């Protein structure tokens, strides 16, 4: 159900970003970029040592007129950002969490691939497949 | 076909050649030997010839029609003049010399020579070869290419399948191809497993004869095939083979269109490494083979597998071990495939997503590398035949797999890669569990529980502790280990617990260890339903009587038999074994009590139940081991029994209150607790004086045998005071001793029965617990769902 999904590396550069094709995809890129600030703010606020699922999931970062942005950060400070269209019947929190969980899992699989160098853009087909699955739902 | 304008000279020349090649006079030249010879005679590199064949459209059609033939000839001419092969150049190049064909006296010789050269050249390649990777692939490719090409390019006649579908891949196109090849033998030879080989190529024969190059002599396709690949791939999946085949010696025989390419020969030769017999098998055979055996292109032949295994050993000597990701990366990087493709191959082959490769995964990855090197596109999903499960499957046995695998993308079922490595192991563990476990009920619940980790862990703990109580006997002991295995709990815990509990129960004086079982019981309250289920079945046998034991009648009967019938009419006297009977009674009564309590969660209710049941115990309690005393005090006992009852109920309540913690603290806790409290109560009663006799019996039953006698003695003197007949006291004492023994034995029996009853109760309660937990989960889920709305 996502309109845009992005994976941001620890150094805050995108490892993977994909949006539903629309005329103004750059807008989503911009949104994701600005959301990073909110992510940082939440991460520093959340604090630390604990790293349970709850804290990994940052929840709604901020809503705009058209869409909502959700954030999730992993233990290695890799951030996942999902932009969801507001017009969709608001997705349950659980659904967003499950989406992040799936993203995290497939991201882990990508990491496990010895041929993947951390920091490279993610080009895994499996990962693409998962993301497509999440985005296609939007219809 | 592109339009072709030929000059008159060319026209004439070409038509002559066409006639020469058109041995069948069908006006279309199948890719028979003559055409191939002709092309070979052009002395062009195999890749070029392949390219030409494709350009002219023969690949598409599967044969050389007149126009294709002409175009091919023209392209040959172009190539020979050193011009790049282009379709446009067909008409644009002017003044092109006629294609030159070196016609050796012996075409065969020429071919041989060509082959040898090729073979040699190819042979040189592998040597420096980047590692092993190139080699095996060739072979693998051969196998693989068979089917795909066969299916997709029925028309690839002209292009003789270089690689005789070696090991298994029949060439679908073969039917057409067969004619030209004389070398049908090669297919025979190559075919190791009933796979079908693509129609042999005439080339093949020669190749076979000529080269003898072992498949190790692979040339890495890289550059050469690349262009070819591009071209071929445009046709269909298989086509990529041919071009790569040229370079890859190991072309899997499928219909490599480049049959005309001499390069194919070496590959075919390599293919034939397995068997190098140039049998002159009838082409028909080949055709048949090819057509019938549409094998899975992704199947790994035994030869390939053996090679892969050898390679695996070089990295990891232990065949059951894993290759770490870094080592695998190095190894596969040697294949010089682009990192992206290697990454994709890894994704496909690392089935359990653990960052390491097992032997199966390694073979699958290697196979994919080989396929890719030969031009096959990587599938989106791991083909079924490459699934790690297929360890040591005999490929040959899987020959006739239908064309489910057209192309590669059509990988049939893909087992969802389980992110949880535990799953496969669990799945495998199930049958084992089932076999060993008489109670299959265990199996199912356990795996399901894995996911809800918290609940599961709780259940596991409960199960662990609970299983102890359920049965001191072996069935339980056997089960806990199984359960623990399934649930991955430390089996030792269960064993230990079970053993201790068992020991505790087995001894009639178990109450010394009461605290332990009691505590375990408490924690057991939440025992997993699975464990309970497991437990449930075993208990049944001993149970029956106990369920009715409340009536004490049974016990009484038993008591009678055990006690050799003191002959005392008093029914209360029956309770002689009394020490024992009281015990089961309270537990039994407490059983319904606890059940009651669980439902009502009301201590008072339990107490009420207890009180109601206690009356039944009354007669037995006072009869504790001292018959004569009872006789004398028949009247007095009864009133005293009343207070006992009350005290028992009080004790029971106290127990309940003290236990408090879980409404599910079931019978077990109540039972021993009751007994314990009853003991205390009894002692209290004993102190009450007139009530001495009654309490003593109760106490006795709680205490060990040793205590019985002293108690008897105590009771004796106490009662003697009350009893007007000191005479009877002595005989009663001696009698009581004997009766004590019997009572003890009976008590042991009763204890065991009680145990089973309690076990059953426990299982029932655990089942209830499970149900409640499920309800709770569902409620939580609902709550979760409703929560977002609350936020909005």
UniProtKB/TrEMBL annotation, chain A:
Its main location: cytoplasm. GO terms for biological process: endoplasmic reticulum to Golgi vesicle-mediated transport. Signal peptide: none annotated. CDD domains: TRAPPC2L. One of its GO terms (cellular component) is perinuclear region of cytoplasm. Pfam families: Sedlin_N (PF04628). Keywords: ER-Golgi transport, Transport. It is found in: Cytoplasm, Perinuclear region. Belongs to the TRAPP small subunits family. Sedlin subfamily. PANTHER family: TRAFFICKING PROTEIN PARTICLE COMPLEX SUBUNIT 2. This is Trafficking protein particle complex subunit 2-like protein. It comes from Xiphophorus maculatus.
From TrEMBL, chain B:
Residues 629-641 have a biased composition (Low complexity). InterPro entries: EF-hand-dom_pair (IPR011992), EF_Hand_1_Ca_BS (IPR018247), EF_hand_dom (IPR002048), EH_dom (IPR000261). SMART domains: EH. Residues 751-782 form a coiled coil. Residues 337-372 form the EF-hand domain. GO terms for biological process: endocytosis; endosomal transport. Residues 10-97, 304-388 form the EH domain. Residues 126-155, 167-205, 220-245, 404-424, 463-487, 500-592, 629-748 are annotated as: Disordered. Keywords: Calcium, Coiled coil, Metal-binding, Phosphoprotein, Repeat. Gene3D superfamilies: EF-hand. One of its GO terms (cellular component) is plasma membrane. It comes from the Eukaryota. This is RALBP1 associated Eps domain containing 1. GO terms for molecular function: calcium ion binding. Residues 667-677 have a biased composition (Basic and acidic residues).
């Amino acid at each position: 159900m996502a309109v845009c999904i992005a994976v941001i590396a620890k150094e805050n550069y995108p490892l993977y970003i994909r949006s539903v094709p629309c005329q103004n995809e750059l807008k989503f890129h911009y949104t994701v970029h600005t959301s990073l600030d909110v992510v940082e703010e939440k991460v520093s606020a959340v604090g630390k040592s604990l790293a349970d699922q709850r804290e990994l999931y940052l929840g709604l970062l901020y809503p705009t007129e058209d869409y909502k942005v959700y954030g999730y950060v992993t233990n290695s400070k890799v951030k996942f950002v999902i932009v969801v269209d507001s017009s969709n019947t608001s997705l349950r929190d659980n659904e967003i969490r499950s989406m992040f969980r799936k993203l995290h899992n497939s991201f882990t699989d990508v990491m496990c691939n010895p041929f993947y160098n951390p920091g490279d853009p993610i080009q895994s087909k499996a990962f693409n497949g998962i993301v497509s699955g999440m985005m296609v739902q939007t219809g | 076909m592109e339009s072709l304008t030929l000059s008159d000279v060319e026209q004439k020349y070409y038509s002559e050649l066409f006639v020469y090649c058109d041995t069948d006079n069908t006006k279309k030249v199948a890719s028979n030997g003559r055409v191939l010879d002709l092309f070979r005679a052009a002395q062009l590199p195999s890749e070029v010839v392949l390219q030409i064949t494709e350009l002219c459209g023969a690949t598409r059609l599967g044969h050389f029609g007149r126009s294709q033939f002409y175009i091919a000839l023209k392209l040959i001419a172009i190539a020979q003049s050193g011009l790049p092969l282009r379709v446009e150049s067909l008409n644009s190049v002017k003044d092109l010399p006629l294609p030159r064909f070196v016609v050796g006296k012996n075409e065969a010789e020429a071919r041989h020579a060509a082959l040898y050269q090729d073979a040699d050249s190819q042979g040189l390649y592998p040597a420096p070869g980047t590692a092993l990777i190139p080699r095996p692939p060739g072979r693998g490719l051969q196998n693989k290419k068979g089917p795909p090409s066969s299916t997709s390019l029925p028309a690839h006649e002209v292009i003789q399948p270089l690689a005789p579908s070696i090991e298994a891949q029949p060439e679908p196109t073969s039917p057409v191809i067969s004619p030209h090849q004389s070398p049908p033998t090669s297919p025979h030879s190559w075919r190791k497993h009933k796979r079908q080989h693509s129609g042999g190529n005439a080339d093949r024969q020669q190749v076979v004869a000529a080269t003898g190059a072992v498949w190790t002599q692979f040339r890495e396709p890289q550059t050469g095939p690349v262009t070819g690949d591009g071209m071929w791939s445009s046709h269909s999946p298989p086509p990529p083979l041919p071009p790569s085949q040229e370079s890859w010696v190991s072309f899997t025989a499928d219909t490599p269109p480049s049959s005309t390419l001499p390069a194919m020969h070496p590959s075919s030769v390599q293919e034939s490494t397995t068997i190098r017999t140039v049998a002159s098998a009838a082409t028909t055979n080949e055709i048949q083979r090819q057509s019938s055996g549409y094998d899975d292109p992704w199947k790994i032949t035994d030869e390939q597998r053996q090679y892969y295994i050898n390679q695996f050993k070089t990295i990891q000597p232990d065949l059951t071990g894993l290759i770490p990701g870094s080592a695998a990366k190095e190894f596969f990087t040697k294949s010089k495939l682009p990192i992206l493709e290697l990454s994709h191959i890894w994704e496909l082959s690392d089935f359990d997503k653990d960052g390491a490769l097992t032997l199966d995964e390694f073979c699958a990855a290697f196979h994919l590398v080989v396929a890719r090197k030969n031009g096959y596109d990587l599938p989106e999903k791991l083909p079924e035949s490459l699934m790690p499960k297929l360890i040591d499957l005999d490929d040959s046995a899987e020959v006739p797999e239908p064309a489910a695998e057209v192309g590669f993308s059509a990988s049939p079922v893909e087992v969802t890669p389980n992110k949880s490595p535990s799953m496969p192991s669990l799945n495998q563990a199930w049958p084992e569990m089932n076999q060993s476990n008489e109670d299959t009920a265990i199996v199912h619940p356990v795996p399901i529980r894995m996911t809800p980790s918290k609940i599961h862990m709780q259940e596991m703990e409960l199960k662990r502790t609970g299983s102890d109580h359920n049965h001191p006997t072996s069935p339980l002991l056997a089960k806990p280990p199984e359960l623990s295995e399934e649930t991955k709990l430390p089996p030792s815990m269960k064993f230990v617990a079970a053993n201790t509990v068992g020991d505790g129960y087995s001894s009639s004086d178990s109450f010394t260890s009461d605290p332990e079982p009691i505590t375990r019981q408490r924690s057991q309250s939440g025992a997993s339903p699975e464990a309970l289920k497991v437990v449930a079945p075993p208990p049944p046998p001993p149970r029956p009587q106990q369920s009715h034991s409340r009536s004490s009648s049974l016990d009484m009967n038993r008591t009678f038999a055990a006690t050799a019938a003191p002959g005392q009419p008093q029914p209360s006297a029956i309770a002689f074994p009394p020490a024992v009977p009281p015990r089961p009674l309270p537990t039994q009564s407490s059983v319904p009590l606890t059940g009651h309590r669980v439902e009502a969660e009301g201590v008072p209710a339990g107490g009420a139940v207890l009180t109601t049941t206690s009356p039944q115990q009354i007669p037995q309690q006072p009869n504790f081991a001292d018959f004569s005393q009872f006789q004398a005090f028949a009247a007095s006992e009864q009133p005293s029994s009343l207070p006992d009852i009350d005290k028992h109920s009080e004790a029971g309540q106290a127990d309940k209150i003290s236990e408090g913690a879980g409404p599910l603290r079931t019978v077990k806790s109540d039972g021993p607790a009751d007994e314990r409290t009853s003991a205390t109560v009894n002692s209290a009663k004993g102190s009450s004086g007139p009530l001495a006799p009654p309490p003593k019996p109760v106490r006795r039953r709680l205490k060990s045998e040793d205590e019985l006698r002293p108690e008897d003695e105590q009771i004796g003197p106490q009662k003697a005071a009350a009893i007007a007949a000191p005479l009877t006291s002595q005989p009663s004492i001696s009698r009581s001793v004997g009766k004590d023994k019997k009572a003890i034995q009976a008590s042991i029996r009763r204890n065991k029965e009680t145990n089973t009853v309690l076990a059953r109760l426990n299982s029932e309660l655990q089942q209830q617990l499970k149900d409640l937990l499920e309800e709770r989960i569902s409620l939580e889920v609902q709550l979760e769902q409703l929560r977002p709305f609350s936020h909005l």
